């Protein structure tokens, strides 16, 4: 490979850059007296090696080779990363609060009901050019960091025009062709958009307009509704509660992608776009058991239940990017991304419930639409004559929504002999809930960098930038249910709910609709973040590189929880302001003669509470049902990060690395169980915490064993982690272990890959992922911690290409179908099997 440069400083920098080795540099006179430098060397296309930070990179080819459908699936194979709940990536075992996600350099809003974290299963792998997981802090990125920063880069315009269409079909062993739970929804459910079947009826919508509470009119409350009005409103609610069983059809997906490029004069104009749709089903049977500790500190059963559910997932993605560049010196790029993910759930929970000392049969029907819209525009301007000054700017406006219309949950109870189940007349025995969340994010940033000549024929890249981020979140929940007595008209309490709630039963002497919205169900929150940074990436001779920087962040958080119905009640307002400087320094020792380098890094970072964690008002989690009580006295947590890694790049496609990390937490934020509350959750600043670990990572082709294995490769990584958090005695409350490992942190993570790639027509791989045990919930009242046990899964993918037009892909997931188990004191809490799955896809490129 030959690179010709007309600027001596840049030539020196590239010659000494770690992406090149074995260089042969010669200078020849150029017209006008400018030297032309020809740099001859072997290019190693590994961003992991080039960056000043300790990082790992997955490009589009890596996602394709492993058959990943989302960013979350791919990242679980990176050393030190594990996937939590199929959505959140824990870096080095640290929880989602300790990681940040940026899309093309810009922060993102979240559709999660109480967290600001972005679930990474939202992002389909098909739109991704690469994902950089940066495990050490650098001043250009947000300082809310301890685990790492995940940088998602979307695909850019192609080098030549293309158009492709893909389609696929999939099978899941425990689901496809078998009976699953379903219910009557809307006619357009298959699109992932509710057609109004779950909307509030007009009578109810009109009644509660202006935040009016739905309650009866009486001598104490004169603004309520008459019995006749409540009867009409109750009868207007759709009488649709009953589940049925049906044969579940195969999974399916379809997508289309296109791109083109034009070269008018000195300009280059490119465009890339894509549309994708997928529809998949998953039936599961999960044990749900809970335990308590008796006076002898023995674990005894409390609830013994079984959850049966069928979940349909519909994903729609629209991606469009376009750009124009002039002489490769000035570039303007615009990107539009919309991801719409819908979950349609029908589930039944059955078994013994200690809350009423009865056996229950509880049904939940839930439709959730999550939508992420990101609109970005960015520019880059290069000025060769001004010390190679490069100016970058970006503006991002994004919005995340979560809509859950008409969630229905109702319960039947039975005596011990299970001879008859009857509808529960308790006030909480039936609920219908409409919830909406909108999270908006606006960001504008400007940065500049230039190369300065420094002594001893070295070069320094100096960077500076400013960023302003404004976040706004609004969340609203309205709850309703029927209360009253059963008047026995045309049904019994053992009938299905469609029959019990007939029009004759909804009356002033029977069931009447009531609102059960809680005073703390609704809140709004804001955060403003102003930041600037200064960073220098310096060469200290031919073999040493030093990066030093500082970031300043001024954050202002505010969360307001308010009662919709009591205008005279003051809202509960919680605020937290912080202003800090965050230093970072990292060094790289480049050992050219052995193709090795050694990195070290130290940085100071921060972790801020999430919005609802600051509010002291009780809040019911809309998904788990747990009561959460925030803590207005929470402060920010500070983290000191120490890292070191040895890297050996012994060929253009092979490498080996060993890394060490150690982190100190001052006042880390931890979830606790509130004393005397049953299982209410709150948050505290623990006294301190530490985590430390070692990472091994290697990638090697197998031709050295036998030439017939030249197209086979293997990759492996292993992470061993230890952590400890200390809770102050006065804050420990009813927790069993005030000193314990960090919640959610696995003690080891293993990834193994065996692949084949002939670089022509075939490629495939086996991928094995194993996560060690970790604490799911902290034990209380003498009971041990609830532990997720070690779990491993094996996947296979194969792709065959016929010429330049046809691509056939096959994927097989979870081949081992191991039991996923959670236990407490050796007793089963949750256990289930996901089932094996397979899919076949065909792509044609025109």
User: Could you tell me the mean pLDDT?
Assistant: 86
Helix/strand class: mainly beta
Low-confidence stretches: 1-45
Helix content: under 10%
- Which overall shape is indicated by the principal axes computed on the Cα atoms? globular
Beta-strand residue percentage: over 45%
Our measurement of the CA-to-CA distance between the termini, rounded to an integer number of angstroms, reads 31 Å
Rounded to the nearest angstrom, the radius of gyration is: 29 Å
Number of strands: 45
Oligomer: single chain
SS summary, helix count:
8
Largest sheet: 22 strands, antiparallel, barrel
Textual characterization of the structure:
With 846 residues, this protein is mainly β. The protein has a domain at 1-43. Helix content is 6%, strand content 58%. The chain contains 8 helices and 45 strands. The longest helix is centred in the first third of the chain and has 10 residues, at 227-236.
Quick overview:
The protein has 846 residues and is mostly beta strands. It has a domain of 43 residues. It has 8 helices and 45 strands.
Primary descriptors:
846 residues; five-stranded mixed sheet; 8 helices; disordered N terminus
Layout of helices and strands, plus pairs?
Blueprint: E1 2-5, H1 8-16, E2 20-28, E3 36-43, H2 47-50, E4 55-59, H3 60-66, H4 71-75, E5 81-84, E6 88-91, E7 99-103, E8 106-107, E9 128-134, E10 148-154, E11 162-172, E12 179-182, H5 202-207, H6 227-236, E13 244-247, E14 251-262, E15 267-293, E16 299-326, E17 330-353, E18 358-383, E19 389-414, E20 421-423, E21 430-454, E22 458-484, H7 497-500, E23 511-515, E24 522-539, E25 544-562, E26 572-591, E27 596-607, E28 618-620, E29 627-629, E30 637-651, E31 654-666, E32 669-673, E33 681-685, E34 688-701, E35 712-726, H8 729-732, E36 739-740, E37 748-757, E38 762-771, E39 774-777, E40 786-788, E41 791-802, E42 806-813, E43 820-824, E44 827-832, E45 837-845
Parallel strand pairs: 7-10
Antiparallel strand pairs: 1-3, 2-3, 4-9, 5-6, 7-8, 9-10, 11-14, 11-45, 12-13, 14-15, 15-16, 16-17, 17-18, 18-19, 19-20, 19-21, 21-22, 22-23, 22-24, 24-25, 25-26, 26-27, 27-30, 28-29, 30-31, 31-34, 32-33, 34-35, 35-36, 35-37, 37-38, 38-41, 39-40, 40-43, 41-42, 42-45, 43-44
């Amino acid at each position: 490979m030959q690179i010709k440069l007309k600027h001596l400083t840049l030539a020196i920098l590239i010659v000494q850059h770690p992406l090149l080795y074995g260089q042969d540099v010669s200078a020849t006179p150029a017209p006008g007296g400018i030297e032309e430098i020809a740099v001859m060397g072997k290019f190693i296309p590994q961003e992991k090696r080039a960056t000043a930070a300790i990082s790992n990179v997955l490009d589009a080819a890596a996602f394709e080779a492993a058959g990943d459908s989302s960013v979350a699936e791919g990242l679980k194979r990176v050393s030190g990363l594990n996937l939590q709940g199929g959505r959140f990536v824990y870096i080095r075992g640290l929880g989602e609060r300790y990681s940040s996600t940026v899309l093309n350099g810009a922060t993102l809003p979240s559709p999660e009901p109480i967290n600001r974290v972005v679930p990474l299963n939202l992002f389909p792998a098909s739109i991704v050019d690469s994902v950089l997981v940066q495990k050490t802090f650098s001043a250009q990125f947000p300082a809310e960091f301890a685990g790492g920063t995940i940088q998602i880069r979307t695909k850019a315009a192609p080098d030549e025009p293309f158009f492709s269409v893909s389609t696929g079909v999939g099978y899941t062993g425990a689901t496809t062709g078998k009976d699953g739970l379903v219910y009557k929804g809307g006619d357009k459910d298959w699109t992932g958009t509710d057609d109004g079947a779950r909307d509030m009826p007009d009578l109810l919508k009109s009644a509660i307009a202006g935040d009016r509470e739905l309650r009866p009119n009486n001598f104490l409350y004169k603004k309520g509704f008459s019995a006749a009005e409540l009867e009409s409103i109750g009868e207007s609610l759709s009488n649709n509660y009953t589940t049925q069983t049906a044969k579940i059809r195969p999974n399916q997906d379809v997508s289309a992608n296109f791109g083109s490029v034009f070269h008018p004069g000195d300009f280059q104009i490119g465009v890339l776009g894509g549309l994708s749709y997928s529809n998949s089903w998953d039936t599961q049977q999960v044990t749900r058991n809970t335990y308590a500790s008796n006076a002898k500190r023995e674990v005894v059963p409390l609830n013994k239940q079984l959850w049966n559910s069928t979940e349909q997932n519909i994903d729609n993605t629209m991606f469009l990017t376009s750009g124009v560049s002039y002489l490769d010196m000035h570039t303007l790029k615009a990107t539009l991304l919309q991801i719409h993910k819908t979950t349609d759930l029908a589930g039944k929970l059955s078994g013994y419930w200690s809350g009423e000392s009865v056996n229950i049969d509880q049904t939940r029907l839930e439709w959730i639409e999550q939508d992420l819209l990101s609109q970005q525009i960015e520019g880059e301007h290069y000025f060769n004559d001004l010390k190679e000054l490069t100016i970058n700017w970006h503006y991002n406006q994004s919005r995340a929504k979560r809509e859950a219309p008409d969630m229905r949950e109702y319960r039947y109870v039975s005596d011990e002999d299970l001879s008859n189940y009857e509808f529960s007349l308790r006030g909480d025995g039936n609920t219908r809930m409409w919830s909406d969340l909108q999270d908006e994010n606006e960001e504008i940033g400007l940065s500049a960098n230039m190369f300065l000549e420094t002594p001893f024929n070295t070069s320094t890249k100096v960077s500076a930038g400013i960023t302003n981020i404004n976040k706004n979140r609004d969340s609203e929940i309205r709850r309703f249910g029927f209360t009253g007595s059963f008047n026995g008209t045309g049904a019994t309490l053992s009938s299905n709910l469609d029959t019990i709630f007939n029009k004759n039963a909804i009356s002033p002497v029977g069931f009447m609709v009531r609102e059960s919205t809680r005073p703390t169900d609704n809140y709004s929150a804001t955060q403003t973040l102003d930041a600037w940074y200064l960073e220098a990436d310096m060469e200290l001779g031919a073999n040493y590189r030093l990066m030093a920087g500082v970031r300043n962040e001024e954050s202002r958080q505010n969360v307001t929880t308010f009662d919709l119905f009591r205008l005279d009640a003051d809202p509960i307002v919680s605020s937290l302001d912080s202003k800090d400087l965050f230093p970072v320094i990292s060094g790289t020792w480049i050992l050219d003669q052995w193709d090795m380098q050694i990195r070290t890094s130290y940085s100071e970072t921060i972790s801020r509470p999430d919005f609802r964690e600051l509010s002291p008002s009780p809040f019911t989690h809309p998904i788990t049902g747990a009561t959460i009580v925030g803590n207005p006295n929470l402060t920010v947590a500070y983290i000191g990060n120490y890292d070191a890694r040895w890297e050996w790049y012994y060929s253009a496609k092979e490498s080996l690395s060993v890394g060490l990390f150690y982190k100190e937490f001052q006042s880390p934020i931890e979830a606790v169980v509130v004393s005397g509350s049953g299982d209410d959750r709150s948050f505290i600043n623990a006294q301190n915490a530490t985590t430390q670990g070692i990472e091994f990572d290697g990638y090697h082709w197998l031709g050295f064993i036998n030439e017939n294995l030249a197209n086979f490769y293997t990759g492996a990584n292993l992470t061993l982690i230890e952590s400890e958090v200390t809770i102050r005695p006065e804050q420990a409350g009813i927790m069993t272990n005030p000193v314990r490992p960090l919640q959610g942190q696995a003690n080891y993570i293993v990834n193994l890959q065996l692949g084949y790639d002939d670089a022509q027509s075939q490629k495939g791989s086996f991928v094995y992922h194993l996560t060690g045990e970790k604490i799911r919930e902290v034990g209380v009242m003498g009971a041990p911690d609830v532990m997720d046990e070690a779990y491993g899964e094996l996947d296979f993918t194969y792709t065959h290409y016929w010429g330049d037009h046809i691509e056939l892909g096959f994927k097989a997931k979870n081949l081992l179908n191991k039991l996923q188990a959670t236990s407490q004191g050796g007793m089963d809490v949750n256990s289930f099997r996901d089932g094996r799955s397979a899919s076949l896809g065909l792509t044609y490129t025109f």
